[in-house]
Amino acid sequence: MVFSSTVFLFLFLPLVLVIYYQPWFTSRNFRNRFLLLASLLFYAWGEPVFIVLMVFSIVVGWFVGLHVGASAGSDKVRRKRWLIAGVAFHVGLLFVFKYLTFAAQQVGLLLGTDTSVIHIALPVGISFFTFQLLSYLFDIYYGKAGAQRSVLNVGLYIALFPQLIAGPIVRYDTIEQQIEHRKENLADFADGMMRFIYGLGKKVLIANYIAQIADNIFDVGVPLSVTTAWLGALAYTLQIYFDFSGYSDMAIGLGKMFGFRFPENFNYPYISRSATEFWRRWHISLGSWFRDYVYIPLGGNRVPRPRWIWNLFVVWALTGIWHGANWTFLLWGLWYFVLLLVEKLTKFPDKLGPLAHVYALFVIVFGWTVFRSPDLAHATSYLGMMFGAGSAGLFDSTAWYYLWNGRTIWAAALVLSLPVVPYVQKRFAETAVTRVGEPVMATGIFLLSLVVTISSTYNPFIYFNF
Question: Do 244 and 166 contact (CB within 8 A), yes or no?
Answer without folding.
Answer: yes
